[in-house]
């Protein structure tokens, strides 16, 4: 069985967000999903021009709220509703795939969000379109408020490479109609953009 891989949407923000650093994966399946297992790993290593040590240090130092996740965006005039716009775009895309709460769309059995941050997408979207959600986030403090919430099955704090994430997600899909949806901020200039502050790269 091969999983379908779909790019959900892309946008370029003035500042990087947690989702810029750790690919945001929604793995959805309509049959039982086995969550990926946490593994012990050594200190993050650099891959390409991404400085994982600097990235983890940066995100470990920001506040566990919308402002911290969006690099201060909510403080800027006119950008306070960026979270609502982001979630609306994601919800509209999934609706085109037949996933949703209304109009004959279906709720999926399981979803996994990688690079979940404080769970904005999990709470604002995934818990409405999936019966259970698993979360992977390398910064433990971001997910403290999510523990014990209905619908959230497991929270794991690991820093795996993208291909390893995709391998786990593919293994977790139990039916041919399972989906792996990748959402990421991308560069529209055709060049990688390195962020000196958080060590991340927008490709």
Give a brief rundown of this model.
The chain is built from six helices and eight strands; from the N terminus they run βαβαααβαββαβββ. The longest helix is centred in the middle third of the chain and has 15 residues.
Describe this structure in words.
The protein has helices spanning 18-21, 52-60, 66-69, 82-96, 120-129, 162-172, and strands at residues 4-7, 24-29, 108-114, 130-136, 152-156, 179-183, 193-194, 201-202. The protein has 203 residues and is of the alpha/beta class. Strand 3, helix 5 and strand 4 form a beta-alpha-beta unit. The radius of gyration is 16 Å and the shape is globular. The two termini are 29 Å apart. This is Alpha N-terminal protein methyltransferase 1 like.
Topology readout:
Layout: E1 4-7, H1 18-21, E2 24-29, H2 52-60, H3 66-69, H4 82-96, E3 108-114, H5 120-129, E4 130-136, E5 152-156, H6 162-172, E6 179-183, E7 193-194, E8 201-202
Parallel strand pairs: 1-6, 3-4, 4-5
Antiparallel strand pairs: 2-3, 2-6, 7-8
GO biological process, one term: methylation
Protein name: Alpha N-terminal protein methyltransferase 1 like
Keywords: Methyltransferase, S-adenosyl-L-methionine, Transferase
């Amino acid at each position: 069985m091969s999983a379908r891989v779909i790019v959900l949407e892309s946008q370029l923000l003035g500042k990087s967000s947690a989702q810029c650093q750790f690919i945001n994966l929604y793995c959805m399946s309509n049959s039982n999903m086995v969550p990926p297992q946490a593994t012990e790993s050594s200190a993050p290593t650099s891959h390409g021009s991404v400085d994982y040590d600097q990235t983890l240090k940066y995100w470990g130092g920001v506040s566990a709220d919308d402002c911290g996740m969006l690099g201060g965006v909510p403080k800027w005039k006119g950008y306070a509703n960026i979270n609502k716009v982001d979630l609306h775009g994601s919800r509209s895309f999934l609706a085109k795939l037949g996933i949703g709460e209304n109009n004959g769309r279906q709720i999926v059995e399981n979803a996994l969000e990688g690079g979940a941050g404080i769970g904005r997408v999990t709470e604002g979207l995934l818990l409405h379109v999936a019966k259970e959600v698993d979360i992977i986030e390398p910064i433990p403090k971001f997910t403290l408020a999510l523990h014990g919430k209905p619908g959230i099955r497991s929270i794991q704090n690991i820093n795996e490479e993208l291909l390893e994430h995709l391998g786990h997600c593919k293994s977790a899909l139990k039916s041919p109609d399972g989906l792996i949806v990748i959402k990421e901020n991308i560069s529209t200039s055709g060049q990688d953009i390195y962020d000196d502050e958080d060590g991340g790269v927008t490709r």
